[in-house]
Amino acid sequence: MSQEFTLHDLRVTVERIEGRSVCGLRVGDYFELTESSRLRLPAGQHFCIYALSAVLPLLAAKQRELAAADWMARDTLVACPDPEERLIMRIERTGQRTLNSDDLT
Question: Quick check: 105 pLDDT over 70?
Answer without folding.
Answer: no
